[in-house]
From TrEMBL:
InterPro entries: UPP_synth-like (IPR001441), UPP_synth-like_CS (IPR018520), UPP_synth-like_sf (IPR036424). It comes from Chryseobacterium aquaeductus. It is an enzyme of class 2 (transferase). Substrate binds at residues 23-27, 35, 39, 67-69, 71, 73, 190, 196-198. Binds 2 magnesium ions per subunit. This is Isoprenyl transferase. The active site is at 22, 70 (proton acceptor).
């Protein structure tokens, strides 16, 4: 039994946690191995994050798996990541299903090799009736591109008379994002010590708590995740109000 998990207030859980799973390459290099060795050793950390969320019933977990910029990495690394993704999905689909998780994918899926896309969509379809929690994989995902696409689609709806410019507000805008069915991110975690968001969920993290950990992704454990939740619960989220106003609420 985890002592850290015991400290979590189950009444004040984040509804949506997003993770930038960073540091695989450095983890491998520090062991004198190729970068791809780090990716292979990252799968257990992914399992840890999913299981930790599932154990404490966090309804939405979004994992930054592959960014739109990651396509520019060496071909060998990209190919290894794509095969790993397909293999892992094949192996883990049953497990995701039996945990009652519904999987979603966000990003520019057209750029993915057909095998990967098909495997992803298969698991999305297999789990579509599940309601225990949501696992969102951001793959070939870039937030600026997501926002630009929203702008283009709204513009075309304005042109066709489906949307009145006066009615464009935050709520309407969100309906044009990949994440339209998900709540805003409450907690964003990034491993590897880098303090940046690297084109991830820029709109959706407007009021998220941010945590940057000095841990490389393959070393990520359930207890590290639980500690992030405890730290999140020790923050006062003010949304622009004063601390006194929040105390009264
Ligand atoms: C994260 O680890 C995995 C992906 C971006 C796909 P990196 O591969 O970025 O590892 P570092 O940051 O170079 O150590
Ligand atoms: C962000 O990590 C993308 C993922 C974790 C999938 P990167 O390693 O690509 O980010 P930068 O290049 O350090 O900003
Ligand atoms: Mg990196």
């Amino acid at each position: 039994m985890s002592l850290i998990k015991e400290k979590i207030d189950t009444e004040n859980l984040p509804q949506h946690v997003a993770i930038i799973m960073d540091g695989n390459g450095r983890w491998a290099k520090s062991r004198g191995e190729e970068r791809t060795f780090g990716h292979k050793n990252a799968i257990n950390a992914v399992r840890n994050a999913i299981n930790a969320c599932n154990e404490i019933n966090i309804p939405y977990l979004t994992l930054y798996t592959f960014s739109s910029e990651n396509w520019k990495r060496p071909t060998y690394e990209v190919n290894t990541l794509m095969s790993l993704l397909t293999e892992t999905l094949l192996l883990e689909a049953e497990e995701i299903f039996s945990k009652g998780l519904r999987m979603h994918v966000i990003g520019n899926l057209e750029k993915l090799p057909p095998m990967v896309r098909e495997q992803l969509l298969k698991v999305v379809d297999l789990t579509k009736e599940n309601t225990k929690g949501n696992l969102v994989l951001a793959i070939s995902y870039g937030s600026q591109n997501e926002i630009l696409n929203a702008v283009k689609n709204i513009s075309s709806d304005v042109k066709e008379g489906k949307v009145d410019i006066e009615n464009i507000d935050e709520k309407l805008f969100e309906n044009y994002l990949y994440t339209k069915d998900f709540p805003p991110v409450d907690l964003l975690i990034r491993t590897s010590g880098e303090i940046r968001v690297s084109n991830f969920l820029l709109w959706q993290i407007a009021y998220a708590e941010l945590q940057f950990l000095n841990v490389l992704w393959p070393d990520f454990s359930k207890d590290i995740f639980f500690q992030c939740i405890v730290d999140y619960q020790n923050k006062e989220r003010r949304y622009g109000l004063t601390g006194e106003q929040i105390q009264i609420q």
